[in-house]
Amino acid sequence: MIDGEAIRQGAAALDVVLGDDAVERLEGFGRALIRWNGTYNLVSRRDEPRLVARHLLDSIALSPLVNGRVLDVGTGAGLPGLPLAIVRPDCEFVLLDRSEKRLRFVHRMTAELALANVAVVEAAAELYTPTVPFDTVVSRAVASPATLWPMLRRLLAPHGRALLQCGDPKTLKMPADAEVDCMSMTIPGLDAPHWVLVLAAPTA
């Protein structure tokens, strides 16, 4: 069900080149998601047959957009943070969630995959105060952009950007105090395009 060649070819279609080590780690993470799904309630059961496309490729599609210190807000099962950490070892990742149960799985995966560039934090995003702000914040459909932006903006460095994976932007309320760029992404193996909103503080 978790096919390394499908991961490699799908990533290449997204202009993400994967080495053998990254493919093996993504395979291992995908197998673990399925193996532990019943215990930790990680992803929808409907997603298991299309896990490579729906969760692995959809996550690493953000790879060309992230840089520096990266915060994954509402990481849940480690998505998109863990796949991104695998393919972007040059970046430093903090995976944030308030669910202690799911973070047990994320801790397990961070250790098993030997990801030295990942830290895991149990906290609500609105209460989290990092010692150093982030260059990039990512989030997968946690809340509407207008709701998320005030929370995320204070976590970003002045030059930082928030990347929100979401549904059709025409159905979403946008923040008034952000520059917003909407990007449509075609994920190999999925029928409908996925959207990424790139939010940044307005430039003077």
Bulk shape: globular
Q: Which runs of at least 5 residues are low in confidence (pLDDT < 50)?
A: none
Proportion of residues in β-strands: 15-25%
Number of domains: 1
Give the count of helical stretches: 7
Could you write a compact summary of the structure shown?
This protein is an alpha/beta fold. Helix content is 34%, strand content 24%.
Description:
Helix content is 34%, strand content 24%. It is an alpha/beta fold and 204 residues long. It has a single domain (4-200), classed as Vaccinia Virus protein VP39 (Rossmann fold), CATH 3.40.50.150. A hairpin with an 8-residue loop joins β6 and β7. α1 packs across α2, α2 runs antiparallel to α5 and α4 packs across α5. The longest helix has 16 residues, at 20-35. The termini are far apart. The mean pLDDT is 94.
Q: What keyword list fits this structure?
A:
single chain; 204 residues; alpha/beta; Rossmann fold; seven-stranded mixed sheet; 7 helices; 24% strand; globular
